[in-house]
Design a protein that fits this description.
Blueprint: H1 2-12, E1 22-29, H2 37-49, E2 54-59, H3 62-70, E3 75-77, H4 81-89, E4 90-95, E5 111-114, H5 134-139, H6 142-147, E6 157-160, H7 163-173, E7 180-182, H8 195-205, H9 208-217, E8 222-226, H10 237-241, H11 244-253, E9 256-260, E10 277-279, E11 295-298, H12 303-307, E12 314-318, H13 322-328, H14 335-338, E13 342-344, H15 347-354, H16 362-373, H17 381-397
Parallel strand pairs: 1-2, 1-4, 2-3, 4-5, 5-6, 6-7, 8-9, 8-11, 9-10, 11-12, 12-13
Helix pairs in contact: 2-17, 8-9
């Protein structure tokens, strides 16, 4: 059945090039049909500020469509007649990963702007040389090509943040560096907003848990959020890497709070009984929340680059599987030389780091964000992206 479904999609794809594309139609979508990340934040901005464009969120998930509609925006199930028609006639597609964020078979002739979902620490896409994804990006086997066609279609543009980052993206996505747009990320706009502005945003566009957490954080002397990179072999990563009961005791004695933000496939049990540890919904957008977080605990995740856009923050790199991870997935950067933060290689070192000062020195922070964010640091990314699209229109109709 899966084979036949993909065969039908391949039959449809050539016909998608025959449809006239309207430059006033913007289509948005995200991985796994969700409403999240850079595409979400750009969609909200464009819907509110682009009176000359029709912005529609398209998704293969009917629950997501219902959610976006409840927020007051236009959204369609992508395989419905209206959704398919919009996908086939929108000139601009804004996605977080690939054309399949909307629907690969309808993408012929669209201008695909890949907003991506994070700056690089580990290798991505065609920069990958080892590990489970080698068949897809190195060997490029017939099976991988057949079942993942969107991976092999090069985007027209990729959202970037600095020349350093553009050089990496150009190589990994196999595009010319001139097609890397160094505008920064729409999702980071909230990092510089006041508490009230972020609460207002959460009230309009986020589930109730976001507002609850924002209010909860004000009751603690210090707050942490643990956001580890997903590991294919560790669905129980929180349980395997942390003694949650011991950690909770330390936090309770100091009136501190830790938030756990799991991946969609991560299993976390028995957190409800812990007084100073809270589990966040894996679908929760944390960008309205993290400006109120004091310390990020992570490892190889791009959340680190975003978090350090804010000064006076602490960073703990919890690298309990560093040797194994580095062997299975190459780094795009010299991790030891470039990454700031306090290192913890086991739970004992993590406990010690939590009880000590872990604020990143300002000089070190500025060096780090200068490398990854360059001149995009102080611009409104969403406004820049929309302005760029308007400039494309002028070139097309000149």
């Amino acid at each position: 059945m899966k084979f036949l479904a993909y065969l039908i999609c391949y039959f449809i794809y050539p016909f998608s090039f025959l449809f006239p594309r309207d430059s006033r139609k913007y289509a948005f979508g995200s991985f796994r049909g969700a409403f999240n990340d850079n595409a979400k934040h750009l969609f909200i901005y464009a819907s509110q500020h682009c009176s000359d464009a029709r912005c529609v969120w398209l998704s293969p998930d009917r629950k997501t469509v219902a959610l976006v509609r409840r927020l007051g925006f236009e959204s369609y199930y992508v395989l419905s007649p209206r959704g398919a028609w919009y996908a086939l006639t929108a000139r601009y597609w804004f996605v977080n990963s690939y054309s399949n964020d909307i629907f690969f078979s309808f993408s012929g002739g669209a201008v695909i702007i890949n907003l991506w979902h994070g700056l690089t620490i580990k290798r991505i896409e065609f920069g990958i040389t080892t590990g489970d994804l080698a068949d897809r990006y190195v060997k490029k086997t017939l099976k991988e090509r057949f079942y993942h066609p969107q991976v092999y279609i090069r985007p027209d543009y990729v959202l970037s943040s600095s020349h350093f980052q553009s050089e990496i993206f150009a190589k990994d996505f196999r595009i010319d560096i001139s097609r890397c747009l160094e505008f920064g990320y729409p999702r980071n706009y909230l990092l510089g907003r006041s508490f009230q502005e972020r609460m207002d945003f959460a009230s309009k566009f986020e589930p109730e848990q976001a507002r609850e957490v924002l209010n909860m954080l004000r009751n603690y002397s210090r707050s942490y959020i643990y956001m580890p990179t997903w590991r294919d072999s560790q669905r129980e990563v929180f349980v395997q890497s942390l003694d949650l009961n011991a950690l909770n005791g330390i936090l309770a004695d100091r009136n501190e709070l830790m938030l756990l933000k799991p991946h969609a496939n991560t299993i976390v049990d028995n957190v409800e009984s812990l007084s100073n540890i809270r589990l966040l919904d894996n679908r929760l957008d944390i960008y309205s929340i993290i400006p109120d977080i004091d310390v990020l605990i992570s490892d190889y995740s791009s959340i680190i680059q975003d978090f350090l856009l804010m000064s006076g923050k602490g960073l703990i790199l919890y690298l309990y599987d560093y040797k194994d991870y580095a062997t299975g997935r190459d780094f795009e950067i010299d991790y030891e030389a470039i990454m700031p933060g306090v290192r913890a290689y086991d739970f004992g070192m993590l406990r010690q780091a939590i009880q000590n000062d872990c604020i990143v020195p300002e000089e070190e922070r500025r060096r780090f964000i200068g490398l990854f964010w360059g001149n995009s640091l102080n611009i409104n990314s969403s406004d820049e992206i929309i302005g760029f699209v308007h400039s494309l229109d002028r070139k097309i109709y000149k």
